[in-house]
Amino acid sequence: xxxxxxxxxxxxxxxxxxxxxxxxxxxxxxxxxxxxxxxxxxxxxxxxxxxxxxxxxxxxxxxxxxxxxxxxxxxxxxxxxxxxxxxxxxxxxxxxxxxxxxxxxxxxxxxxxxxxxxxx
Length: 120
Hints:
Blueprint: H1 13-16, E1 24-26, E2 36-42, E3 51-52, E4 57-63, E5 65-70, E6 73-78, E7 82-85, E8 91-95, E9 101-107, E10 115-116
Antiparallel strand pairs: 1-2, 2-9, 3-10, 4-7, 4-9, 5-6, 5-8
């Protein structure tokens, strides 16, 4: 059965863009969703500093190659790969490829809560 809802609407990329780049921050609570995410476009060598969340985070690599560190473990993930880090465990990722890294970091929370381990 097909039904339509007047509440259904696309969230424009420009409305959730971070700064002047193409990365975006989607906070589920602002849109009636139970999850949040970052869509990330990073250049070689770029990535967030070590941080943690009080919920798991799942990364889906769409393009490029990322070094993902979770606690004492490090993996290399390429386009099509998915990895998950548990709640409260410090983690980070870095673009180790030659081109743009595109990934989605899915937060198992309607809000994004993150604590960085340093000011870097």
